[in-house]
Amino acid sequence: MLNLYDWLDKVRWSDHGLVAAIAQDASSGRVLNLAWMNREALARTVETGEAHYWSRSRRKLWRKGEHSGHVQKVKSVRLDCDEDVILLEVEQQGGIACHTGRQSCFFRRLDNGDWVSVDPVLKDPHEIYGR
Amino acid sequence: MLNLYDWLDKVRWSDHGLVAAIAQDASSGRVLNLAWMNREALARTVETGEAHYWSRSRRKLWRKGEHSGHVQKVKSVRLDCDEDVILLEVEQQGGIACHTGRQSCFFRRLDNGDWVSVDPVLKDPHEIYGR
Fold first, then answer.
1. In what order do the strands lie in the sheet with B72-79?
2. What Rg, from alpha-carbon coordinates, does chain B have?
3. What does the pLDDT average to over B8-27?
4. Cβ neighbourhood burial of B27 (10 Å; 0-12, 13-18, 19+)
5. Gap between the Cα atoms of A75 and A72, Å rounded
6. What distance in Å separates the CA atoms of residue A15 and residue A20, rounded to the nearest whole number?
7. Between A87 and which of A78, B24, B57, B58 could a Cys-Cys bridge form, CB atoms 3.0 to 4.6 Å apart?
8. What average pLDDT does range A36-52 have in this prediction?
C-alpha cells in the first residue's frame, strides 16, 4: 500500500525527534531564521504551505506568525545530504521574521571582536505583539 | 583587562558546547551547508578566515576543505537573536560545498511526496577525494 509519508521517514530525526530547519527569503535570499521541527511540524508545513516549528523551550508546535501575522509561505522544501537539515524557501509575510522586528534573526555581525547590530528594526515589537 | 574573547562568551553554547553554523555563498546566495561549531572551531574560523567545524560523529575539529581543497573563505560572521546559531557568508572555493560534488548540500527538493535530487554533480567525488 502506498505510504503517503515515506518522505517523512527518510528524514534522519535526532534522538529527540527533531531536525534543524532553515528559512531563507525567496526574494532577497536572506537567511531569516533557524528553528526546529518534529515530524508533525514538517508534515503540517508541507500540508498547509506555512512554516510550522517545534519550540524546544515551550515544548509545543507553533505556526510561525501565529501571533504577529508574519507567516512564512513555503515555496520549496529541501533536505541536505545528511538528511538531518531542512531548508525552506519562503515568502516572508510582512518582511519580518525576527521577534525583534527585523527582517532576519541574523542581525548581529562580528565586527572588531564584538557582535554589532547592523540591520534596522522595521517595526516596534510592541506594535507587532501588543503590550 | 581587555578580554579578546568576550564575543565567544556571548554565544549560547549548548550543553554539548556546540552551536549550529550555516554557510551561505556570498555570490549566489545559496545556502551551502549546516554544520556544528564548538568554541575552538568558531575561534579558528575567525582567526584564520576559513570555516572550521566540529564533527560530532568523528569528534574532531575539521577545516572545511582540508581534503578536497573546497575551503570556505569567510567574509562575515553573524549571530542570531537567540545567540545560538551562526551564519557565515563565504566564498566557496571550487564552487562545491557538498561531499557529493554538488554546489550545496541541499540538493534534494520535496516534489510530489518524494525527495528528488535537483542539482547537478559538478565534480565526481572520486576525483575530489581520490580513491
1. A114-117, A108-111, B72-79, B85-92, B19-25, B31-37
2. 16
3. 97
4. exposed
5. 9
6. 13
7. A78
8. 97
So what's the ipTM on this one? Answer: 0.96
Give the three cell numbers for residue A122.
522595521
Judging contacts by C-beta atoms under 8 Å, the chain A residues touching residue B108 are: 78-80
Here the cell at position B21 is 553554523
Instruction: Report CB contact under 8 Å: A24, B31.
Output: yes
- Which amino acid, B12? R
Instruction: Give the pLDDT of residue A5.
Output: 80
SS3 at position A45: helix
Q: How far apart are CA B95 and CA A95, in angstroms?
A: 30
Query: If phi over 0 gives left and psi between -120 and 50 gives alpha, with beta otherwise, what is residue B59?
Result: left
Cell of B49: 578566515
Split at pLDDT 50, 70, 90, the class of B105 is very high
Amino acid A131: pLDDT? 60
Residue A2: alpha-carbon gap to chain centroid: 30
Q: What gap in Å lies between CA A80 and CA A87, rounded to an integer?
A: 8
Res B123 pLDDT > 60: yes
- Provide the shortest C-alpha distance from residue B97 to chain A (in Å): 11
Dist. CA A16–CA A36, nearest whole Å: 11
pTM of the model: 0.96
Percent of chain B with pLDDT over 70: 96
